[in-house]
Q: What sequence folds into this?
């Protein structure tokens, strides 16, 4: 249970500096704007549906508002998550505090768990705050909470993969800017790789689609939990965390 | 309490520490002396389990720093060079974090933190952000975190660096008060600090131990005879002959330089003080005694002789004697 003091320390650092506030406020501002636009278009469509009852059959607030919002949020997260993870190890290495941290009676795994869970907690808080959007929709009409919770499960899994990749890259450098931009580059790469799928055919298409980090978010948005998507995110998270432990170990050996 | 055996550490092609061996007994305070880049910090990092050695072994409190690292880490307090701390935390909350991570039980934490803050004179600063502290206060917060959890062994890398003279005196008194219950190894390049604080000394240069022992032992081994330096106004040859005539004088060197000031170095056995006789002799002959002082008695002179001498490769005999000392 030695991860707990590290978790608490990281939370103090997130909320004792502008990092967490900037992360939360900017993300909510951007996604709030997106939500408003999608919502306005949707209400326009609903108005028209009064005139053409046929079109009304396809209208569904969960499908037409929340699903596009989930996919927009996934892309915005790609830009924002590096903000949370870039300092986790890079800052400790730069300031030398890692030397004290790694000589306290805690295992590397506990240090990593404390840091990863702290970043996860800030992200979790963010997701809670974005519940405002479906909450607002629920005030105006009926929505399918089951599908929305599934979407949130998807965001949680996607986010943990993003965070794990970020933590790993942060453990490789002592420069926060490098950690942040490399994480962004890696995540962007994992997304863009999926674009190649459209042009390719056959098994290449399947592989590229499977690798694409945001592609797997799609079925969660539809309210479907597909094992292969869960496995994908869990694997990416676990593998990145495993690599982080190896990087910490290697750091000891190289000095 | 600390046993270092043939320890070697290389960073790629650079050997930072080479075949270092020494021991520190329980309750002792040992000073780790050496010029910059001698390998002091590297040795301390290995003892604190921050990085493994390339060769040799080190045991702290009976546990191997590599294979039983957790056991060692539970028993040490470490202050790395320059006291790296989290600037964005307050002094009090930082120390509470350290107490928690070192496994101080919840009920005792507040009391223990308050206690180390008093001992390190930082109680007034507990609400301050660490990044707003002066160098001296940061250093003391670093020392406070090392003391938390009441570790058996303290590894302090330059604990008094950046402090003002008054603070240095306070911190030295604090470290001195740890002797007995705690075993302390501290590195420094301030020689008088070692004389004031430490029981034993390990001198390291270019990654090798060049001398170790208590201060008195080192002085005796490096300078086996008592020496006095005198300046006398009088005819040089006659003076030398007269000095040689004093009973117990082993050797007289004429150090007179180009300015013709008449300086002489007189060596005698350590238990034979010839200063009184020299003064009487000068007075009896009607010469002028301009200066008289003892040399080769301080750690500083030992250090310079051992470290500088090693560079010229001419201290082998003195060192061979000193090596087996502790």
A:
């Amino acid at each position: 249970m030695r991860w707990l003091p590290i978790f608490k320390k990281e939370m103090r650092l997130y909320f004792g500096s502008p990092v967490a506030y900037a992360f939360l406020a900017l993300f909510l501002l951007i996604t709030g704007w997106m939500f408003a636009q999608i919502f306005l278009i949707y209400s326009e469509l609903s108005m028209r549906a009064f005139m053409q009852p046929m079109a009304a059959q396809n209208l569904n607030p969960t499908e037409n508002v929340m699903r596009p919002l989930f996919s927009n949020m996934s892309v915005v997260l790609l830009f924002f998550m590096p903000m949370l993870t870039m300092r986790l190890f890079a800052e400790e290495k730069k300031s030398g505090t890692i030397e004290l941290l790694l000589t306290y009676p805690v295992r590397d795994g506990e240090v990593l768990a404390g840091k990863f869970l702290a970043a996860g907690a800030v992200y979790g808080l963010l997701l809670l705050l974005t519940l405002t959007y479906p909450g607002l929709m629920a005030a105006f009409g009926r929505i399918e909470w089951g599908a929305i919770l599934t979407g949130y499960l998807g965001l949680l899994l996607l986010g943990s993969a993003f965070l794990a990749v970020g933590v790993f890259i942060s453990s490789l450098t002592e420069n926060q800017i490098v950690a942040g931009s490399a994480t962004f580059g890696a995540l962007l790469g994992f997304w863009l790789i999926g674009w190649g799928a459209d042009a390719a055919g056959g098994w290449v298409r399947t592989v590229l689609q499977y690798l694409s980090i945001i592609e797997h978010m799609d079925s969660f948005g539809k309210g479907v939990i597909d094992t292969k998507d869960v496995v994908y995110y869990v694997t990416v998270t676990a593998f990145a965390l495993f690599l982080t432990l190896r990087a910490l170990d290697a750091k000891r050996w190289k000095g | 309490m600390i046993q270092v055996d043939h320890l070697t550490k290389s960073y790629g092609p650079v050997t930072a520490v080479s075949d270092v061996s020494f021991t520190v007994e329980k309750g002792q305070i040992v000073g780790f002396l050496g010029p910059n880049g001698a390998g002091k910090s590297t040795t301390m990092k290995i003892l604190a389990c921050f990085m493994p050695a390339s060769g040799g072994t080190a045991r702290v409190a009976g546990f191997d720093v590599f294979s039983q690292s957790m056991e060692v880490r539970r028993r040490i307090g470490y202050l790395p060079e320059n006291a790296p701390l989290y600037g964005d935390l307050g002094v009090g909350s930082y120390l509470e974090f350290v107490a928690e991570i070192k496994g101080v039980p919840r009920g005792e934490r507040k009391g223990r933190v308050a206690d180390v803050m008093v001992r390190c004179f930082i109680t007034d600063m507990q609400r301050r952000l660490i990044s707003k502290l002066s160098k001296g206060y940061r250093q003391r917060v670093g020392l406070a975190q090392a003391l938390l959890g009441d570790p058996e062994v303290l590894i302090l890398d330059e604990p008094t660096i950046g402090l003002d003279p008054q603070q240095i005196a306070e911190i030295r008194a604090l470290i001195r008060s740890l002797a007995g219950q705690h075993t302390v190894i501290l590195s420094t390049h301030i020689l008088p600090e070692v004389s004031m604080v430490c029981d034993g000394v390990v001198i390291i240069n270019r990654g090798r131990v060049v001398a170790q022992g208590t201060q008195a032992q080192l002085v005796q081994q490096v300078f086996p005879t008592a020496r006095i330096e005198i300046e006398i106004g009088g005819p040089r040859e006659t003076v030398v002959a007269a000095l040689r005539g004093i009973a117990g004088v082993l050797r007289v060197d004429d150090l007179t330089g180009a300015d013709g000031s008449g300086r002489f170095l007189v060596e005698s056995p350590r238990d034979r003080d010839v200063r009184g006789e020299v003064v009487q002799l000068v007075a009896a002959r009607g010469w002028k005694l301009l200066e008289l002082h003892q040399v080769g008695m301080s750690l500083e002179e030992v250090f310079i002789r051992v470290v500088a001498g090693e560079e010229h490769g001419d201290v082998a005999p003195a060192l061979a004697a000193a090596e087996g000392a502790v």
In short: The interface with chain B takes residues 2, 4-6, 8-9, 12-13, 16-17, 95-97, 99-100, 102-107, 252-255 of chain A (CB under 8 Å).
